Amino acid sequence: MTALSIGKGVTLNSAADLEATLRRIGEVRYHNLHPFHKLLHGGKLNKGQVQAWALNRYYYQSTIPIKDAVVISRFRDRATRLEWRHRIEDHDGDVGSEGGIERWLKLTEGLGLDTAYVESTEGILPAARFAVEAYVHYCRDRTPLEAIASSLTELFAPNLHEERISGMLQHYDFVNPDIMAYFKRRLAQAPRDAGFALEYVKRNAKMPEQREAVCNALIFKTNVLWVQLDALYHAYVNGHIPPGAFVPKDN
């Protein structure tokens, strides 16, 4: 169990053990604990720093349906493909219906960013780009079980979204309820998606080594999310913005 940084005495002999371990990973490694989120939700950032967060996070949001298409491609099982397909529609939208990417662009537009610039991803931090692309590659190259397990950060997302909605609306006069629509919608979507993924891994990870792989997949995903905030903190709090990255007007 050396690959799991969650303390000694961990056992993965049953589906119940697996779920307990996954939830423990979320308690200690989910990015709600990152100092950048504490600043964001506590009203400690200026508008330019909030813009930088929304801009960089757009790259992650806009890549999620690409990642999910990769996951679908791993399965011969039609039922699994059908279940997973709605995730792409949730983000890309459909004819006549708005998706999560459009709602995120409402956020960036509401924060004063040019939509064409956001969509170009020209100003994204290199570390954020590398982390997001590593996530897509992980889902392509690891087992289908691990690909699904890597999505389990959604178990912990609703609490973060609630904290973000209330904190940002309370502390920033440039934030209004309309531009926070993405997070409100995810309050219902994330639990549904996480519920399917959790039951899938509990049912299909039948051996201890498979359960360990599931746990390590979740650890990998928490690292993907964490390193993006590390990059934001280094660039926009500590002031080390790399060449070519977005520079806020009030920097």
3D architecture notes:
This protein is mostly helical. The protein has one domain: Heme oxygenase-like (Heme Oxygenase, Chain A, Up-down Bundle), CATH 1.20.910.10. It is 69% helix and 0% strand. It has helices spanning 15-29, 35-41, 47-73, 78-92, 100-110, 115-120, 126-141, 144-149, 157-171, 181-204, 208-237. The longest helix has 30 residues, at 208-237. The chain is globular, with a radius of gyration of 18 Å. It starts with 14 loop residues before the first helix and ends in a 14-residue tail after the last helix. The relative contact order is 0.19. The model has no long low-confidence stretch (mean pLDDT 94).
What keyword list fits this structure?
globular, Heme Oxygenase, Chain A, 251 residues, 11 helices, mainly alpha
Any idea of the CATH topology?
Answer: Heme Oxygenase, Chain A
State the share of residues found in helices, binned by percent. Answer: 55-70%
What's the order of the H and E elements? HHHHHHHHHHH
> Ranges with pLDDT <50 over ≥5 residues?
none
Distance between the termini: 45 Å
Please state the structural category. mainly alpha
Number of strands: 0
- Rough shape? globular
Whole-number count of domains: 1
Radius of gyration: 18 Å
- The CATH H-level superfamily is Heme oxygenase-like
